[in-house]
Amino acid sequence: MAKLCLLPSSPTDTRNPKVLPEHLIKIKTPAKVKAKIKAEIKANQRQSKASRAYKERPTMKSIGAETLKTIAKGMNAGYIYVDKDGIIGDFSDLAKEILGIKTLGHQKHDAGQIEPGDIVIFADNDLGNDDMMRPEDLECLNIKDKGISQGDIVLAIGRYKDKSSKPVYKTFGAYVPEPLITLQTKLDSLEISVSLDCESRNIKITVANESYCMDYLESVGHLVVLDGKTKEIKFFQAKGYGYRGEEAGELLRGKSYQAKNLNDENSELVPTVGMSARRVLRGEEFQEELEALLNSEDGTEIQKVLEIYRRWMLVKMIRIKKGTKDDGVYIFIRDRELVQKAAKAGAVLKEKIENASRLTAYRDEMQEIEFLKNIVGNSIKMQKVKQLAYKAANTRFNVIITGESGTGKTKLAREIHSIKGENTPFVTVACNAIAPSLIESELFGYVPGAFTGADSKGKKGFFEEANGGTIFLDEIGEIPPEMQIKLLNVLQDKRIYRVGSTKPIDIDVRVITASNRNLEEEVEKGNFRQDLYYRINVFPIALPPLRERKKDLSLLAESILKNLLSAYGMDEKKFSQEAMDLITAYDWPGNVRELENIIERAITLCDGTNIYAEHLMITKPEAQGISLKARIEAGEKKIIEEVLIKHNGNRKKAMQELELSKSVFYDKIKRYGIELE
Q1: Quick one: average pLDDT of 84-94?
Q2: Phi, psi values for residue 148, rounded to 5°
Q3: CA distance 633 to 9
Q4: Residue 59 φ/ψ, nearest 5 degrees
Q5: DSSP assignment string, 538-592
Q6: Among 249, 422, 579, 590, which residue's CB has the most CB atoms within a 10 Å radius?
Q7: What is the pTM of this model?
């Protein structure tokens, strides 16, 4: 059958969970507490960086457990209390629902196992990434399509281990023109439909007008099973399948599943209160954060998006010490589905926010969601960039953006500026395009008669032009050494002197810099001042090259194509599958700038609707010439990725199987650009 591909798309809900809003609650800190906090931080400046990081936000010392539970209820957040020994002491019903420990609603099923002849309905937006599925597992539905590979989208309906039955299925690779994918059939008089909505991040399976929905953040497999004889529902996937051990791949390979009961905790699951939090709340980073908090100071808090049993949720944790009573960590969790619904609520939500002070954090969430629309990319590396960019936009710290030429440093700088300074100036300075003899007068301006050829009226410099807004110093590494000290003084004193003048001019400018050079190496060589480097490197953001974020290529290409067609007033055009395959396979040494130029040339050459490979005029990867070293490295990368998939992302097990030390393992991960999820 024809193989199509999927364009990941969700402007408000990107594939990487960690860029989602982190705010859960905001509570004002008393002045006395603030003073004490400052004193403690000052007294412990020599502590390790990690320890200091957890001391930066101590705010909740005076708040008791009951108050926090009340706040959680008002926020519609799940509440969990973990005592100082790491034992769960309280676990709200909403927290159990979010984690899938408790199943609510009218849908239920008994414990059992998938048996030959059962009708299996399966949908996966990223085969094998979240559900332990393998392409060969689909053979149990009589699907023997060798074109299906790891990471594909699969919608399938078939009979389990029935070789006489003909399945109905669709598969998609890296690109598909429509955000909504559907599959429909009639089996044994039953109307069955499957839909995957890439924009709302939802998979819905409908059987005889009964729908079973599964929302997802990045990837998910959704499974519904009907009894082959009675046609009754035997099993459906639900929240907390990680906790239940109900990954689709394992179930199709013969593993039993547990019961889902009506408005009651699953009796087959162990109780949560009195158990170790490490056993119940599994997630590597979550456990690290929890452990750090248990060993931290009273009042310490963190808030971020964390993974618990392979489900991403907004988490806020607060350390409170009350002697022997209420001594522990207080955890608030919110399902990302709630955030998505909040984003869609629009004006209704804003009205609620005005009337509920505890929910003011939603304002930031909505703003962040809107901001993230302007930065294209769903890969893990780009999600980290987005997260840092949003945080940077909400400060006045100096930001430095590093990355290869053409990665989009100027665009990112403009986005950081625009979120808070939309109506203020944004001035871009290409430091490598200014002659060394002119750079001082260009940056700081000059007075009349300052030098031969000077304008008789004098001239404002770039810093004056940017006053009240942002100045972006692109390729700052090209500034001559004699100018670096003057720039340092400007950054420290917040004032400039025009060339030929002794009168200072006060400025209020946010400085963003960029460089494709390694400035640390330039400092070591003596080409760049160390003190200036420290001054500009307050908030670093590293933009990855396109070859390290291949998952973004289809989405990025589509976005560029759309913008170019609009700019030139051209009729609609689209990429052929062959063209898109070539785009996603090419390494793009010139990064986004090269991609834009190639697409711009392609739409000029293309007379019809479809853009074909020949319009791109780029060399196929296999024809570029691959060295022995490159082939060996490619083989190593593939093996590491396969072993990580095999062990469901467990790094320790992967290291053990590969017989690699921790340092060597992570060195290869970094070198090959392997994304750890």
Answers
A1: 87
A2: -80, 130
A3: 31
A4: -140, -15
A5: TEEEEPPPGGG-GGGHHHHHHHHHHHHHHHHTPPP-EE-HHHHHHHHHS--TTHH
A6: 579
A7: 0.43
> At which residue do the structure tokens 């304002």 appear?
363
* Tokens 């019961």, residue located: 259
The predicted-structure confidence for 528-570, as pLDDT tens digits, reads as follows 999 999 999 989 999 999 998 888 899 899 999 999 999 999 9
Strand boundaries in 28-177, DSSP class E: 78-83, 88-91, 102-103, 119-124, 153-159, 168-173
Model pLDDT for residues 612-648, shown as the tens digit of each residue: 888 998 865 554 555 566 667 777 887 888 888 888 8
The answer to whether the beta carbons of residues 555 and 377 sit under 8 Å apart is: yes
Tracing tokens 């063209």 back to the chain, one arrives at 579
Residue of 623, 675, 619, 621 whose CA lies nearest to 649: 675
By the 8 A CB rule, do 53 and 3 touch?
Answer: no
Distances in Å between the alpha carbon of 54 and those of 48, 64, 366, 395?
A: 10, 20, 27, 19
Provide the β-strand partners of residue 206: 193, 211
pLDDT of residue 620: 56
325 CB-near residues (< 8 Å, 6+ apart): none
Look at the chain and count its residues: 677
- Provide the 10 A C-beta neighbour count for residue 149: 13
